Structure to design on (872 residues):
């Protein structure tokens, strides 16, 4: 029953999305308001239908309906309820359906919030959003169906089908429950539970600006309306994508036990590409809003972001690239590639068409190399170059070598470590300079004098670092450049606050709040810059100064790493609530002979595989990260540890939190009420005033 | 008087001309700047590609081509569970991997066939100073970076594992029928 309900709801959502596409476009062409409204209502209905479909799958997971093959593969009777719910996105079919639900929620959000303010854009935007949704629902229905069930045909063959085939019988519930697989232990971590939904939200979020941009091209409303309508959507998508990337890094750090958080794996890179192009887009739309420039470039960026989203999803899920965490090879590769290619071709075609008609000309030419718009363009070039270089390393080189050179090459970590640092440094330099330049034109003298105070501050910090005598010059240079970006952001906030205080006589706190309130986007952006600076400091510290050691200790013995000692106090065996055995080493961490923490690195033995859980002592200064890698309890009673010291690594996570805070500030609506409510409120006030 | 009139008349034009000239010069600057940046990025990517390039090979190709001895490559193969030896005190992992064919439909099946086939090409792998990964198990896919030594052993510096049989592509197969019978 559950499987049928889920399948039918998904099918109806698919039909509704297709209907919305056709009716919206036809309605817009024939200027038929009733058709446009009908398309909108069909689009709105998808969210309800998909809530039913996903809800049914979650219920099946909770009650253990192992007859459904998806449930059988991602849970078993011992799986805790929480992981049963999150198993909705534990594997390919469920996560695709979940992707569609989120897509539909975003689309409905955009329809409800923007319907009145952007009437002309809406029909085509609905069509684009629903076309994307219909495509993904098609994948769920025809290739990766989460509602398929196991059937025994002719007593000798097990097949998967939603509806009962002829002469088939259902396997016994007992057999199904006894053989069910359970959720991959690697996915039982909070980072892995929240990380996929965050990434999906980021991915589907970028569909909204894309749909509005394409709608602008299709409808001929080529003003900044599409940018105004979707700026916040782009920011929301960017926020979730950032969160997804940070949480993914945290998961890798906690669970994979190699002391790192970013491995330049193609799948990680695939999620990083839309972030890079999306970041370029968020910056360059400001130029179009302020100066009416870069119209074509912005359209290309939004298409680039959307393409990166679809390509990333395609590359991850089709088995195209050998990656440690790619999903299984499956039949969705070809349709996804066709969808990606056709969307890109149609979009570029639309741009060229409007360009050819002379409708996309900029209102101002570039006149000054040091103007803010020129520096923003440079920043865009750096972001796009980073995206291009990473795309080449993860996908371009392997695919081209296989297609044309008849050989298989890959580019290892060396490639990324050589290519990306100079580009990241250029990015930080621009983050430091661009906020100080003016729109239109800036003289070198003016820019230099504005940079003076931040440069002195950064120089002071660098001198302090040199005085401590530890870091090599390359680190000093790296820290200096990265810090400049943060110092300039803080300095700008300080200058704004001080000016208000002087001019309006406000208190420091009042001036700061008022400053942010008056220009949330700008100062929220500066907070994001501070966050990115802190992340940069953490990345440099943990990459250049990581220390590691390994040693076998008997009970009571200690190992030394830097000024820490790790003492092995004993071994504990325990059974967890869900039945897994835990092998735990009891250790004490000391610094300069003083005890600072009791740590218990351990191995969890799941039926299918062991899992190494690190013991971590986290401070602002560093992480002491201890892995239990072997033990001997019979005879000599010893255990072997691998210990890492990761300096400043926690700044990566703290910086991430500040980045999120900044995004909230930048994206917070001036009036939190949706347009419709605002409209009603305005009418009411009007009515009252005329009464 | 006449001179002044001509002057008045010419001024805006001269301004426009000057502006156009200035714009042209700025455009040239942007063009040169753009070309320089593109060249720098292209150089970075090219030099990085040369530094980071690795052949991705399967076991059969690796052991049958002497050119690979001593050359850093990426190697993929199926782990044979019974050969895994782990010296946790010195962090040395040794195991043998078996050749996976270039083309296959289902990775889990291909891995299982690779470990079951006694005639498939095999190579011994040695990894030093690495903690044994949790996924290092029978019929897992190992993706290694390293060099084939003169001793015929593949010395890996990086070890990544993928284990599709356990989760992603699991199928109950006949277990649902047999226990029922």
């Amino acid at each position: 029953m559950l499987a049928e309900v889920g399948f039918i709801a998904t099918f109806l959502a698919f039909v509704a999305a297709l209907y919305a596409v056709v009716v919206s476009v036809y309605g817009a062409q024939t200027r038929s308001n009733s058709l446009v409204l009908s398309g909108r209502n069909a689009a709105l209905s998808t969210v309800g239908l998909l809530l039913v479909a996903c809800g049914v799958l979650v219920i099946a997971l909770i009650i253990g309906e192992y007859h459904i093959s998806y449930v059988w593969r991602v849970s078993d009777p011992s799986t805790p309820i929480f992981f049963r719910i999150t198993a909705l996105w534990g594997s390919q079919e469920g996560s695709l359906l979940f992707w569609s639900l989120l897509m539909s929620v975003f689309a409905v959000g955009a329809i409800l919030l923007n319907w009145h303010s952007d009437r002309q854009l809406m029909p085509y935007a609905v069509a684009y959003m629903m076309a994307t949704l219909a495509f993904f629902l098609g994948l769920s229905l025809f290739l990766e169906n989460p509602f398929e069930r196991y059937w025994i045909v002719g007593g000798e063959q097990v097949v998967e089908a939603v509806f009962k085939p002829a002469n088939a019988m259902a396997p016994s519930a007992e057999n199904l429950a006894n053989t069910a697989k359970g959720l991959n232990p690697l996915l039982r971590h909070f980072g892995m539970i929240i990380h996929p939904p965050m990434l999906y939200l980021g991915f589907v979020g970028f569909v909204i600006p894309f749909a509005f941009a394409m709608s602008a091209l299709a409808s001929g409303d080529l003003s900044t309306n599409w940018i105004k309508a979707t700026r916040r959507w782009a920011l929301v998508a960017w926020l979730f994508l950032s969160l997804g990337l940070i949480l993914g890094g945290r998961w890798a750090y906690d669970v994979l036990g190699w002391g790192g958080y970013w491995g330049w794996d193609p799948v990680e890179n695939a999620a990083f590409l839309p972030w890079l192009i999306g970041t370029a887009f968020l910056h360059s739309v400001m130029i179009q809003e302020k100066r009416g420039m870069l119209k074509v470039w912005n359209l290309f960026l939004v298409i680039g972001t959307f393409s990166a989203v679809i390509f990333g999803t395609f590359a991850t899920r089709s088995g195209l690239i050998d990656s440690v965490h790619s999903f299984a090879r499956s039949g969705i590769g070809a349709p996804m590639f066709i969808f990606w290619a056709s969307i890109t071709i149609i979009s570029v075609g639309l741009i060229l068409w409007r360009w050819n008609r002379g409708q996309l000309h900029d209102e101002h030419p570039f006149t000054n190399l040091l103007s803010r718009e020129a520096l923003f363009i440079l920043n865009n070039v750096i972001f796009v170059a980073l995206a291009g270089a990473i795309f080449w390393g993860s996908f371009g080189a392997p695919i081209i070598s296989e297609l044309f050179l008849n050989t298989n090459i890959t580019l290892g970590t060396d490639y990324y470590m050589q290519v990306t640092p100079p580009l990241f440094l250029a990015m930080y330099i621009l983050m430091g300079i661009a906020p100080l330049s003016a729109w239109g034109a800036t003289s070198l003298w003016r820019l230099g004098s504005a940079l003076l105070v931040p440069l002195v501050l950064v120089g002071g910090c660098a001198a302090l670092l040199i005085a401590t005598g530890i870091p090599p010059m390359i680190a000093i240079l790296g820290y200096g450049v990265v810090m400049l970006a943060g110092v300039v952001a803080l300095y700008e906030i300080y200058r704004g606050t001080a000016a208000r205080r002087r001019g309006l006589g406000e208190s420091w706190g009042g001036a700061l709040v008022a400053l942010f309130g008056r220009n949330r986007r700008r100062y929220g952006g500066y907070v994001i810059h501070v966050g990115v600076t802190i992340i940069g400091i953490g990345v440099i510290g943990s990459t250049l100064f990581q220390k590691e050691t390994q040693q076998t200790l008997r009970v009571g013995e200690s190992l030394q790493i830097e000024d820490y000692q790790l003492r092995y106090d004993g071994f504990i065996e325990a059974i967890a609530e869900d039945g897994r055995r835990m092998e735990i080493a009891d250790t004490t961490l000391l610094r300069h002979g003083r005890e600072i923490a009791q740590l218990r690195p351990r191995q969890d033995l799941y039926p299918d595989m062991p899992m190494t859980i690190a013991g971590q002592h986290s401070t602002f200064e560093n992480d002491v990260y201890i892995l239990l890698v072997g033990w001997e309890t019979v005879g000599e009673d010893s255990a072997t540890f691998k210990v890492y010291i990761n300096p400043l690594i926690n700044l990566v996570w703290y910086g991430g939190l500040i980045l999120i805070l900044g995004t909230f500030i930048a994206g917070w609506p001036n009036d939190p009420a949706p347009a419709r409510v605002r409209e009603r409120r305005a009418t009411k006030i009007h009515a009252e005033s005329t009464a | 008087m006449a001179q002044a009139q001509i002057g008045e008349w010419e001024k805006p034009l001269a301004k426009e001309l000057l502006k156009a000239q200035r714009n042209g010069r700025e455009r040239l600057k942007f063009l040169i700047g753009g070309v320089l940046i593109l060249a720098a990025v292209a150089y970075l990517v090219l030099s990085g590609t040369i530094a980071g390039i690795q052949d991705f090979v399967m076991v059969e190709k690796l052991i049958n081509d002497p050119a690979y001895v001593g050359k850093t490559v990426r190697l993929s193969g199926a782990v044979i569970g019974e050969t895994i030896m782990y010296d946790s005190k010195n962090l040395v992992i040794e195991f043998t991997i078996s050749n996976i064919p270039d083309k296959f439909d289902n990775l889990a099946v291909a891995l299982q066939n690779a470990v079951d086939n006694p005639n498939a090409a095999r190579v011994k792998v040695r990894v030093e100073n690495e903690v044994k990964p949790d996924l290092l198990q029978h019929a897992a896919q190992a993706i290694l970076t390293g060099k084939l030594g003169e001793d015929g052993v593949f010395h890996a510096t990086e070890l990544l594992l993928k284990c599709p049989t356990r989760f992603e592509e699991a199928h109950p197969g006949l277990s649902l029928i047999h226990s029922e019978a």
Notes: Residues 89 and 129 of chain B are 10 Å apart (CA to CA). Chain B touches chain A through 62 residues (CB under 8 Å). Residues 165-169 of chain B have pLDDT under 50 and may be disordered. The first strand of chain B starts at residue 53 and ends at 58.
